[in-house]
Write a structure and sequence with these properties.
single chain, mainly alpha, Serine Threonine Protein Phosphatase 5, Tetratricopeptide repeat
Length: 221
């Protein structure tokens, strides 16, 4: 493991492929790796970084846009893989939202050049439950709409899927005020309406990629 002063190992691990000139199949493959647990088998080596970040030992990373992005990834993405099914998966969420909001205010978000850098930067706003969650989800939908508008034509299906996920999460928070699928993990009582939702099992974060994505990936696989 690299020194705790170096965020680059996190960046190189999370963004291993240059997608700037890649075809749509490569984008779908990378999205599947990110969002469907492809990184989980390797995350154990980053567990010390998660502990260090939670202890404030990586706060120096906040001084640059990419360093802040990597700190967000360590606190937002890595715990969800390392501690899946346990309350610890969500315990960094409040701090990660503060970290992201600070970067929105100081220009770090605007300084990011890759749409995927920006995507993982703003995800904590969607992930963290709280009294302002619906307003944050409203912002995520607006950012996702802009990302779709700005995407090259051949990549619009990727960003349309991202927007559909954002809108679906907005609907969940508007309806319940929280993510009901976390209730069993966090020991929360589910309302009758939430129990009906949970019984269906149609959770936004586990939805399959569209058929066009599977076809594109299979064609190059």
């Amino acid at each position: 493991m690299a020194s705790h002063t170096d965020w680059r190992e996190v960046y190189d691990f999370w963004f291993p492929v240059d997608l700037s000139e890649a075809d749509v199949a490569a984008h779908w493959q990378m999205l599947a790796w990110w969002m469907r647990g492809g990184a989980n088998a390797e995350l154990h080596r980053f567990a010390p970084l998660v502990r260090a970040a939670r202890a404030g030992e990586l706060d120096r990373w906040r001084s640059t846009p990419l360093g802040r992005l990597c700190l967000i990834i360590v606190l937002d993405q890595f715990p969800r893989g390392l501690f899946a099914g346990a309350p610890d998966a969500y315990s960094s969420d409040p701090e990660t939202v503060r970290l992201a909001e600070e970067g929105f205010d100081n220009g770090h978000y605007d300084a990011l050049t890759s749409p995927y850098e920006r995507f993982f930067y703003f995800l904590p706003l969607a992930h963290a439950e709280g009294p302002d969650h619906l307003e944050r989800m409203r912002r995520i939908v607006a950012i996702s709409e802009q990302a779709l508008d700005e995407a090259p034509e051949h990549l619009k299906p990727v960003w349309q899927f991202s927007l559909s996920q954002a809108r679906a999460n907005f609907d969940i928070i508007a309806r319940f005020g929280r993510f009901p699928h976390r209730n069993p993990v966090l020991g929360r009582h589910s309302t009758p309406e939430e129990l009906t939702y949970l019984a269906k099992g149609d959770f936004v974060h586990t939805r399959s990629l569209p058929a066009s994505a599977s076809s594109a990936i299979s064609a190059v696989g």
